[in-house]
Amino acid sequence: MKSVKFKKEKFPIAIILILSAVLNFANLTIEGYGNEYYAAGVKSMLINFKNFFFVSFDPAGFVSIDKPPLGFWIQTISAKIFGFSGWSIIFPQALAGVISVWLIYYIVKRSFGNIAGTISALCLAITPVFVAASRNNTIDNLLVMTLLIACVFISKAAEKGRFKYLIISLVLIGIGFNIKMLQAYMIIPAVYVTYLISSAVSVKQKIKHLLIGTIVLAVVSLSWAVIVDLVPSQYRPYVGSSTNNTVMELILGHNGLERFNNSGMGGMGGRQVPGEFGNGYGTQNQRGSGNAQNGNWANRQKTVEDSQNGNMANFSGGNGSIPEGMKLPEGSSGGRSPQGGGMAGNFGGQTEASITRLFSKNVLSDQIVWFLPLAIFGFIAGAIVEKLKFTFDNRKKLDLILWIFWLIPEFLYFSYTKGLFHQYYLTMMAPPIAALSGIGLVSMWKLYKEKSKNITWLLLPVSLVANGLVQLLMLSYYSNISSAIKTVIVSSLILCFSASALLIIYKAVRKGNLEQVGNIKVGKALTALAFIGILITPAIGSAATINHKMNGTMPSAGLELLSNSESGNFMMGGRGSEGSNNEKLIKFLESNITDEKYILVVSSATSAQDIILQTGKGIMALGGFTGSDKILTLDKFKTMVKNGEVRYVLTGGMGRGSMDDIMNWVEKNGKVVSESQWRDTVESQERKGYLHFNITGYDKNADSKYNYKNNNSGNNSGNNSGGGPEGMNSQVLYDLKGSVK
C-alpha cells in the first residue's frame, strides 16, 4: 500500500518534470548558439586553462567576457563532454530549469504539503520568461537553481536555528555571485529577514551568526575577483566592460551601479549589456563631426537630441523600405518603449518606471505577470491561515516570509529602476511567484471551504478573476497573433471567469456549509476548472519556444514571441547556426595570414563573435564588447603591428570612440583591401539596404505602429563610421603590413 501511495503522490510532479523537460529541451537546436557573444567566449575557453579561468572572450586571450566565470565554466565543461555546439552550451541552463522545478516542489511541499508543492512546480514550469531563460546560454537560470538550493538551507536554518545551514545558504549565494554578480544578492533581504525573525535561537546569537555568515559570503563572492585582480594585467585578458581593468570595478560599475541608474551612460556611448542597446550613441564629443573615410574615426551623425531621446535606430539613407526580417510586429512593442528608444526599449529600465510597469504595454509585460495576482492574493490568504505574526515559530510562517521578501524587493526593483536590465532577468521573480501561487491556492481553498462569518472565502474566486483579467490585458497587447490561438485563450479565460462566478454562487447557496463530501467535491471541481483556465495562456506562450526561434541575445517567450513570429522579428540578435555574411572574409584571412597572433582586429566583440565561432582563431575586439573599453594605447598597438602580431584591421561596426586614435592611425597608414576580395558585392549591397532606413518616431495615435521615413538626402556617403548600426555599412578592411618600420 505504501508503494501505491508513493506512486500516486509522486505521479503529478513526475508529469510536471516531464513537461518542464519538454519545454526546455524540445527542438533546442533551433536556438543555434543563442547569445553568440557568450558562445564565442565558451569556444575560446575550450582552448586552454588560461582562457578558461579568466573567461576569455577570444582565443588569444585579449579581453574577457564581462560576467563572472562559474556559469561559463559549467558551459565549457558541457561543451568539453558533448562537443562544442549550440545545444551543448545551452544544455546546462535547460537542465537547471528542470532541477529548479523540482526544487520549488520540494521546498513548498516540505512546509505546505504535496498539493501546494505540485501547483508551485507547475506554475514555474510554464512561466514564459523562465522557459526562455532555460533555452538560452544566458546564465540566469543557473543562478535561479543555485538560489533555490540556498532557500532549502535557509529554511532549515531558520526553523532549527542551525548555524551550519545558514553558512551553507550564504556560501551558495556567494557561488551565485560568481554566476551573475550582484544579481545573486537580490535574495539577501529574504535570507537575512527570515533568519532574523526566527524564534529558534536568541537575537544575540542570530546577529552573531549573520555577522560571521556575511564575512563568509563576502569571501566566497569575491574569491575569483581578488585572484584575477592580483594577477598582473600583462598575464591575463583585459577585464571586459571595466574602466580600469579590474573585476572589482566591473562589480561596482557595469554590473553594479549601472543596474540602478544609467543616466550617465549615454547608451551606445557607454558600456552596455551584451545584446542590449542603450540610449542613443553616446556623448557629443564621442560622436564628432568629420568624415570617416577622410581619416576621422570619431564621426557620429546622430544629434545630441537623438541621444537624449533614446532614438537608437535612426538609420539614414537608402530607399526607406523596411528590410525583410526587420518588420515591427503589430500590436507589440517591437523592442521599443512607448517613451521612445528604438531597440533601447529592450532595456527594461527604459520603459516608464511605475508600479504598473510590469503590467503595461512594453517588452516586459507578458514575461512574468501571468501568476502574479494569484501570488499576491495567495500570500494574503497564507498569512490569514497561518496567523502570520510574532512569534515565527514554525516553518510555514518562516517560508511565507522567505518567499514574500524574495518577491517584493525584486518587484519594486524591476518596476522602478532606471538602470540596465533585460527582460529575461525577470526569471528571478518566477520562483517566489510560483511558490506563493501554490501556497496561496491551497490556503484560499481552506478559507473557502470553512464555515465562517467573514468574507475571507472570497479571496479564492476574486484572485482567480483578477488573474484572468491580467491575462486578458496581456492578450489585448498582441492583436496580431493567430485567430486560433486567440480563440483558445479567450475560451480558457471564459472558463476561469465562469467557474469563479459559480464558486461565489455555490458558496452563497450553501450558506458557507461545505463540510459535506458532495459539496466539497463540487467546490474542488470548480476551483480546478478556474485554475486550468489561467494555466492555458502561459502554457501556450512557453510552448511557443519549441517551434519559434527566440532572439539569441534577448530571449523572450510568451505572446511576444508568437507576435514577433507572426509579423517578422525586428530584433537584431545572434544568427546561431543559420549562417553568416563572413564566409568570404574568413577565406581571405585564412589565405593571407601567416603567423600573426590575431588574424583580424575589429572594433568590438559584436563584430568578432561570429568569426571566432567559425574559425576558433584569435580575433582582437579592440574596444571590448561594444567598443567602449580603452584597452590599448596607440603606441602599444603600433608595437604589435611592428612585431607582426596584427596585420588586418576591419574598421566600422560597433566602435564608439574608445579607440579613435588607433582607428584614425589605421585609416591613414593602412592599405585598403579591395572589397571584392573579402566581401561579396551582392551581400554588401544587401547589407546597405538592410541598414539604410530611418525609424524616426513613435506615433502614439497609431497604437504601437511606427512611422518610417525615407532620408535619402545624399549626404551620408562616407559619413557612417564608428558607432552603432549606422556605421556598419562603412566597414573597410585595411592591411597594415609594412606600415611600421
TrEMBL record:
Signal peptide extent: none
Start and end residues of each stretch annotated as Disordered? 277-346, 704-731
A GO molecular-function term, please?
Answer: pentosyltransferase activity
Gly residues composition-biased segments: 332-346
Q: Which InterPro entries does this UniProt record tie to the protein?
A: LipidA_mod_glycosyltrf_83, RgtA/B/C-like, YkcA/B-like_C
Tell me the domain of life: Bacteria
| Comp. bias (Polar residues) | 282-316
Indicate the segments forming the Putative mannosyltransferase YkcA/B-like C-terminal domain, all copies. 585-669
Specify one Pfam family: YkcB_C
The species is Clostridium kluyveri (strain ATCC 8527 / DSM 555 / NBRC 12016 / NCIMB 10680 / K1)
Its organism's taxonomic lineage begins at: Bacteria, Bacillati, Bacillota, Clostridia, Eubacteriales
One Gene Ontology cellular component term attached to this UniProt record is: plasma membrane
Keywords carried by this UniProt record: Cell membrane, Glycosyltransferase, Membrane, Transferase, Transmembrane, Transmembrane helix
Compartments (UniProt record):
Cell membrane
Locate the Glycosyltransferase RgtA/B/C/D-like domain: which residues?
66-224
Recorded topology in the membrane: Multi-pass membrane protein
User: What are the GO BP annotations of this UniProt entry?
Assistant: lipopolysaccharide biosynthetic process; response to iron(III) ion
Q: What is this protein called?
A: Predicted glycosyltransferase
- Residue ranges with Low complexity bias: 704-719
Q: Which residues cross the membrane?
A: 12-30, 89-108, 115-133, 139-155, 162-179, 185-203, 210-228, 368-386, 398-416, 422-445, 457-478, 484-506, 526-546
